[in-house]
Design a protein that fits this description.
Elements: E1 2-6, H1 15-20, E2 28-34, H2 46-55, E3 59-65, H3 69-78, E4 83-87, H4 94-102, E5 107-112, E6 130-134, H5 149-163, E7 168-172, H6 177-183, E8 189-192, H7 194-197, H8 202-211
Parallel strand pairs: 1-2, 1-8, 2-3, 3-4, 4-5, 5-6, 6-7, 7-8
Length: 213
């Protein structure tokens, strides 16, 4: 399992200095894209992703928390995204969006909010490269982990093994060294933000997480 580091709460004016702390420890960057409509907050757009991508050799895990992902997918592909994840709740034709992402040679992910049943993902799992379970309400950092997400990732692991699917199983929200213990057996990728970036000892917290891996 790998850590995908959320940059949501980083200081974008000193982003290179921030990222330099993690180059030896982190392979994935998680990019939370918010539009102020699908979720209450606004974060950043493809220009920021592109500027980060120029100088950094991470795997770019882009999470579109936006109402109209089709409109912006091409821009985030061009900005350097390796994975683009959109929300089941945001679109009517899920297959169309998955196929559109794949048409650029980029990997497609699908995410669900805490109140969405994980069974709603079943028709799409065979086509997905990543499934992202939200263990908090999307749109804000620093929230408390919701235990309802545990059964979701457990079921995703069962379906993946039973049906020989290839998607990565990921979770996002409220992750620390204690909550990771609850879900680690079911995950391929774990999104972590404030537990690392808001810590006085971020590298020590990464070690605590990796101790559980």
């Amino acid at each position: 399992m790998e850590i995908s580091l959320s940059i949501l709460n980083m200081d974008y004016n000193h982003i290179e200095e921030e990222l330099n702390k993690y180059r030896e420890e982190i392979k994935y960057l998680h990019l939370d894209i918010m539009d102020g409509h699908f979720v209450p907050n606004i974060s950043f757009g493809p220009a920021v992703v592109k500027s980060i991508h120029k100088e950094n050799d991470f795997i770019y895990d882009t999470h579109l928390m936006i109402s109209d992902p089709m409109k912006y997918i091409k821009e985030f592909v061009e900005a350097g995204s390796d994975y683009i994840t959109f929300h089941l709740e945001a679109v009517e034709n899920v297959i169309e969006v998955i196929d559109y992402i794949h048409s650029f040679g980029v990997k497609a992910g699908l995410s669900v909010k805490p109140n969405t049943k994980v069974e709603e993902l079943l028709p799409y799992l065979s086509k997905l490269d990543l499934v992202l379970v939200m263990s908090v309400e999307p749109g804000f950092g620093g929230q408390r982990f919701m235990d309802g997400s545990i059964d979701k990732v457990r079921l995703l692991k069962e379906w993946k093994e039973e049906r020989n699917y290839s998607y990565l199983i990921s979770i996002d929200g409220g992750i620390n060294d204690l909550t990771l213990n609850k879900v680690e057996p079911y995950l391929d990728l774990v999104v972590v933000g404030s537990y690392i970036t808001a810590s006085k000892n971020p590298l020590e917290n990464i070690k605590l997480l990796k101790h559980n891996l």
